[in-house]
Amino acid sequence: MRRLLFALLLAVACRPTADRLSVPATAHRIVSLAPSSTELLFAIGAGEQVVGRTTWCRYPAAALRVPAVGDGLNPNVEAIAARQPDLVVLYRSQMNETAAQQLARLGIPTVTLAQDRLEDIAHAARELGRLTGHQPAGDSIGAAIETLLRAPTPATIARVTFVVWDNPPMVIGGGSYLDQLATLAGARNVFHDIAGASATVSIETIIARNPDVILVLSDSTAPPAYSARREWRAIRAVREGHFIMLPGDLFGRPSPSAPAAVAALRHALEVRK
Amino acid sequence: MRRWLGLAGLVALALVSAVVLGPAHVALGDLTSSEIVRSLRVPRALLALLVGGSLGVAGASLQALVRNPLADPFLLGLSGGAGLGAVLAIALHVAGPWALPLAAFVGALGAMALVYRLGLVGGAQLDPRVLLLAGVAVGAFTGAITTAIVSLAEAADLRNAFLWLWGGLSGASWDTVLVIAVYIPVPLVVLYAAARPLDLLALGEEPATHLGADVEPLKRRVYIAASMLTAAAVAVSGVIGFVGLIVPHITRLVWGHHHRALLPAAFLGGGALLLFADTVARVSVAPRELPVGIVTALVGVPLFAVLLRRWMGPRG
Hints:
The structure holds 2 protein chains of 2 kinds. By secondary structure, chain A is of the alpha/beta class. Chain A is built from 12 helices and 10 strands. Chain A is elongated and about 55 Å long. Chain A starts with a helix and ends with a helix. Chain B is mostly helical. Chain B is built from 14 helices and no strands.
């Protein structure tokens, strides 16, 4: 009986929470707890309605004027409530489900959105447009991303590895939006077969898969520090200095500027050839 | 003699498999010319041997010192100190290729000094029970500060701390092998020289004194040398559990309680276990890699159980 009750609770908790509490027809005071949704809100023209963000929400620049309510990883419910929001946008995760329940108990409506893949962003754009009174703009961004995703996959012009950490070496797998961006730009992620968004691998595996280019998320143009280390130089692309730096504003999270990110990566790959 | 040959064979087998096996395919004929083998597998295998050996010897010595079978090189606050050192260096943006290992090393030594000082609260004698309690307390305290820094600082930088908190040999290079190889002989020799007195200490402090052991200086020497070994291991590979706990017990089951034999056996056994564990970590879920500490527990604990049954069974 208790187990059944628990399962029921879980089922309720996992439903999109927006329809549990009455969301006002249009939200005017929004706290956004993920960089992707903050960027989306500004992109659909709801930036003026955002009254709280996380310390990680740095795009667009206008978002920096909004007060930060924490790092968004383990939401500080009190700090969020102090902003008197009429909608809180959460990234879909276990910890955030708990926060959503706590906010609901305070009578604050929430919406929980997956923001991991490009299709999630298309869906989130439409959803946020509907909730904030900017439906046409939300639909238009959603449609633009869906068009991008439906386009025929270009022929592979380079085999790439996203190295996101060096010790232990971590790479991007097929589950990440970065893998999608690479595919759309005509690059083949050599770790596409890893289902997760990222994984720890050994340098040896990177050598064996022998990418043409190492893609690095960095605003700097200097090659990463590990490129001078002997064990990393055993990777051909590192030894030959084939790095492409991906700036955080375009590549740091799945974003409505995905078409621009794809074009920028495509350009960088073509210039290299 | 057969036992030693068996152990030497085990170490050789572990070394060979660590060099031959890997997620990348290297043909047997290309082993000596392959860049993968020369720059990656060989230094990593040597580092595993040296770190595993150091942890085995440090564990065996500390278990004799505190006369407690649960003693582990990391129980005495060193892991917490090393983690705090590394996280502090990251939070303060200390740069340089050796900044993090050095900071972890300094942190471990700082924790050691603090535990040592607390171990002397009862007077001039180092009390093993107080030492254990002080180790747990200092470990909890440094752990709390580390968690506080991790939760307040910029998370992206702190991925640097993963290695120290999880443990692993992914940072292996010829440089780290060289540093460890130059460093560890001194504490190893100090501990080996203390082998006989450690046998006496097992009888209890008073009997040991009567039998001519200079107990107080002995305890200090052993504590400091074992901590220096552990600090070096944690600086290059983070906290790798179970090797320092399980290997001394396994070697004690096979070699008995004489430290002249026990300490070298613990070195070779620790090295072999970490070599096997790291090979499994690199190969078993390829292209991904497992944290090696998980594998040392998965390999070491069943091995320990089998030996325990075999050696304790008929008598008990």
